[in-house]
Each structure stands twice: as structure tokens, then as C-alpha cells.
Amino acid sequence: MKKVLLVHNYYQQGGGEDKVFAQEEALLRSNGIEVELYTVHNDLINNQTLMNKAKMALDATWSSTEYKRIKKKLMDMKPDVVHVHNFFPIISPSIYYACNHLNIPVVQTLHNYRLMCPAATFLRENKVCEKCMTGSLINSVINGCYRGSRVQTVPLVTMISLNRMLGTWGNKVNRYIALTEFSKRKFIEGGIPEDKITVKPNFISTNDNTESMRTINQNYLLYVGRISAEKGVRNLLEAWQHIKDQKNMKLLIVGEGPEKEQLSMLYAHKNVEFVGNQPSNKVLEYMKDAKYLIVPSIWYEGFPMTIVEAYSVGTPVICSQIGSLQEVVHNEVTGFHFVHDDIQDIQRVIGDAINYKDYYSMREKVIEVFQNNYTEEINYKLLEDIYRSVIKENNNGRTAKAKI
């Protein structure tokens, strides 16, 4: 394996997927792999006329324009493997067909649940919803699950339904990367063949970040991420203000989002501080000095990069007992679980965690788990094995066809 094409459709608001894409690019390059990128950005949509926007919405199902562009890119580069992180909405599933036409194996990382759920989150009205996986996708149109709009949901339903009918998900992708065993099980339930899914977690470039017993402040708890309903920040703030003995600690909120303005006004007191978005190196500094990172999500998170970042500096995590989170954070080993969407239980668990007697032993365990699971070296080996496997399978298939 010498050449890899990495493919990504950036959203208008950056997030964990973008960070993983950049890190895997750097990881491959540092190991001597020739890497080229094929990327588009959703900002392109903003500059279009209403008619062009409507056309782009239809193209999300299968874009002939992107098919031609990608095919040309593939013919020029001749990669050994194509690794897609996100194709929605501009690139579309047509990328799989371009790769198949030129007999180039495709790997797709499953960062969210878009192949089964138009909202990509299995969340509706702030509650877990799997109706489109177990029943009809019409449910999402009725409820306007994509951006609260029935009109905008229709192209997504068309994209999922048509490609499901064409067998795209099962036949045009050589290997899927699920971030956890939980998400793997969900995709199997949704119809993706089990033998096509490999679990590979996210990772972080450490640069000697791992620490355990150094002198740290530990005078605050930390939330890092988008400040929006599915992230459960409101629950966290409500629980925090009812903890009687906060041990002179404060709650630090890093990030931006649609709920920030309202929540910062509602919970503006000396023990809560909103600091907005921060650069990556500053976030790691916050994590080093935090007593705990808190992840109060009410949806099935994929694999939050914030948890890996916290682990890399020895900081335990308090999280919702839901989906992949309860798999990544080991209760009373690398952190604590609370019942998701339960303010009283959040309050109880945070109170217990602040007073936890074996805290420094927990920090040591966090670093051990990080070094055994989430380093660059371990992740590259996993990624290399996936690439080599799909290339070998693809070559075997080509040989079998030639014999016929």
C-alpha cells in the first residue's frame, strides 16, 4: 500500500469529524504513505441561487457532477485505496460508484448514523428515536427530522432509500469503520453486513501529553463541545447548581452553539464560566488542570474526541450511561456513569466523583487505558490492517473475475 485518497465533505460548522480527518491524514503521511485529499465544503451551498440549492439537494442522492470529478481524480492519482469520512451532502454516494467503476477499494468511516437516520443522531425532540431503523423512513418526513423541516428531510430520505434499494451500502463499500462495538451493533441492525464492519476507535497525537501525578489545579470540572440540546449541557448546568458542596470548584464550559446565549444568562453565577471556542492547545491545557471532563450527552455519541483528549492527559471522565459512551468510559475505572437525561442522578454522581478517595489511582488507570488503546502507533496498525485487507480482497476478486 503506497497511495491513499482521503475524502471529506466539511460541514458548515467544524467538529470532531474534521479533526479525525486531519489527524488520519497526518498519521498516514508520518508513516510514509502518499496521501492526496478530495474535499468540498458546505459553505458552497450558501452562495447558490434558490434553484441551484434545490438541485444540490437532489444531487445529495447521487451526484453525476461529483461522480465525474472524482473519477477524473482517481484516474490521475491511481490510489491503492479510497477512504471516505463524509460524503453528505455534496459528494454523495456517487463516489462509491466511481471507485467501483475503476476497481479501487473503498473504506468508509461511520462517524454518525446518516445511513439509517436522516437526522444522523437517532434523536427526536431530545429523546432517543430509532423509528426509521425499525420502521419506515416516512417517520422522519412526518416529523421534519432534518433541521426541523419536512421539505429538507425529503432529499435525505430519498438518498437513504434509493441507495438502500440499489444495494449501495452493502455492495459498493468494501469496509466500514465503526468507532465502537455499540455503533457496530447499530449498523448491523440497520442492515450493513457484519463482515464489512471493523471497529477502530479515534486517537490523538500525544506529543508527550500524557501525565498523571504532576501538580495540577483541579479546581474545576470541564465541559468541551457544542452547546446544543443533544449534548445535554442544560441538564449538566441544572444539576450543578443543586450540588450543595461544590468543594470551592467551578464548572468551565468550552464551546459555542445555539443554546449558549440562553444558558449563559440562566446560569450566570460565580461557579459557572463560559469561555467560548478555544484553540486545541488551550483545550488540552484546560483538560490537564480539570478534575474531570463531563460528557452529559442525551444522544448516541459516535466517539467524542474530547474523551480521547482527556485520557491523553490523565483526566477521568464523567458521562451519560448511553450508547458508546458507557463503552469508552469504564465506570469507577476511568470515570463515572450517570443515568442519561436524569438531572438528579447527574447531581449525585458529580457529588460522589468530587469526593472520590482513589482519584489519583483513577488518573493512573486513565493513562494506562489511553496508552493501550488510543495512541498513534496502535491506530496506525489498525488502519494499515484495514487497508491491506480491502486491497487484498479486491485483488482476489479481480483475479476471480479474470478466470471466469
Overview features:
six-stranded parallel β-sheet, 404 residues, Rossmann fold, alpha/beta, 46% helix, 2 domains, single chain
Descriptive account of the structure:
This protein is of the alpha/beta class and 404 residues long. The protein has a six-stranded parallel β-sheet, with helices on both faces. It has two domains: 174 residues, Glycogen Phosphorylase B (Rossmann fold, 3-Layer(aba) Sandwich); 154 residues, Glycogen Phosphorylase B (Rossmann fold). The relative contact order is 0.11. The protein is globular. It has 18 helices and 14 strands.
Given this structure, which CATH class of the largest domain is correct? Alpha Beta
**Helix percent band:** 40-55%
The rough form would be described as globular
Gyration radius, rounded: 22 Å
Please give the count of helices. Answer: 18
What's the arrangement of strands in the largest beta sheet? 2-1-3-4-7-8
CATH topology of the largest domain: Rossmann fold
End-to-end gap: 27 Å
Annotation, overall tally of beta strands:
14
Largest sheet: 6 strands, parallel
Low-confidence stretches: none
How would you summarize what this structure contains?
This protein is α/β, with parallel strands linked by helices and 404 residues long.
Topology:
Elements: E1 3-10, H1 16-30, E2 34-41, H2 43-46, H3 50-59, H4 64-77, E3 81-86, H5 94-101, E4 106-110, E5 123-124, E6 127-128, H6 131-134, H7 138-143, H8 150-166, H9 168-171, E7 175-178, H10 181-189, E8 197-199, E9 220-224, H11 233-241, E10 250-254, H12 260-266, E11 272-276, H13 280-289, E12 292-295, H14 305-312, E13 317-320, H15 325-328, E14 335-338, H16 343-354, H17 359-373, H18 376-403
Parallel strand pairs: 1-2, 1-3, 3-4, 4-7, 7-8, 9-10, 9-12, 10-11, 12-13, 13-14
Antiparallel strand pairs: 5-6
